[in-house]
Structure formats: C-alpha cells, structure tokens
Amino acid sequence: MKKKQIKLEIPAEQTSFIAIACTLSIHKFVWELNNALDISLSESNEICINENCFPVFKDEMSLANKSIVIIKNRIETGVLIQKLVNIDYILKIRGPFTEEEVKVIMGKIKKITSVIAVIQIDPSKFKGVNLIQNT
Questions:
Q1: Quick check: is 89 in a domain?
Q2: Domain containing residue 108
Q3: Which of 6, 48, 87, 124 is the most exposed place for a label (fewest CB within 10 A)?
Q4: Is residue 39 within 8 Å of residue 61, measured between CB atoms?
Q5: Cα(104)–Cα(4) distance, integer angstroms
Q6: pLDDT tens digits, residue range 65-116?
Q7: CA distances from 26 to 15, 86, 100, 133 (A)
Q8: Rounded to whole angstroms, how far apart are CA atoms 102 and 98?
Q9: Residue 5 maps to a domain
Q10: Is the pTM of this model over 0.85?
C-alpha cells in the first residue's frame, strides 16, 4: 500500500513597505505617526549591522491581526538599505491590508507637516529589505 503525502502550504504573509523622507527625529516622527494613524508604536529591538544600530518602533496591538513597524533607515554612521540613501524611515505594514488601506495610510502620513516624500516600495527590487523582513 502506497503512503499518501499531504502537502501543507502556508501562504506568504502580506507585507507592504513604505519609504518616507522626513526632517523629524525618530521620537518626534513616531509621536506624529501615533497621532495620525491612531496607533501606539513603542520602542523595540534595534537592527544592528556591524557597529551600526538602527532604531525600530513596533505596534502589534492597535490593529487586529496587523502590525506596523517603523525603522530608521539613515543614521549618522550609515544607511540600512543602501539604494535608499535619501530615505529616512521605512514603514512596514504586515497583515491583511488591501491596497486601498495602504494608500489611506500613505495619505495620512503625507499630511504630517515635516514629511517630504512617501513612496511605496517593492521589496524584490531592493537588496537589503530582507534585513527588515523579520522585524
């Protein structure tokens, strides 16, 4: 009798990345994001590469089945994602979001006075995005 194999396929989790250019410090920007998006970002584990540590703020509680993470891309001693040297922050949205919901979030971020640019990025086109995949 031949054994039957059952394949378990787990769909990839939906994730969107938004690049943000902004003149605010990380703490002021997180405060503005918390107010604009009605979330509660709090400090999390940093992403450290060699001697450079990039601050990370995360919220997994405010939105059901969704999480929002903001990562500082540019610090005085380096850049996390080399191809995005003019980008100050990377916003990662993980969970069941529609494209329309992502656009609404981008619109709310654009209304913050110190924000210069808000751009949705395709992670497959940027080497280094895998560094923030597991945050």
A1: yes
A2: 24-117
A3: 6
A4: no
A5: 47
A6: 888 999 999 888 888 888 888 999 999 998 888 889 899 999 999 999 899 9
A7: 22, 15, 26, 20
A8: 6
A9: no
A10: no
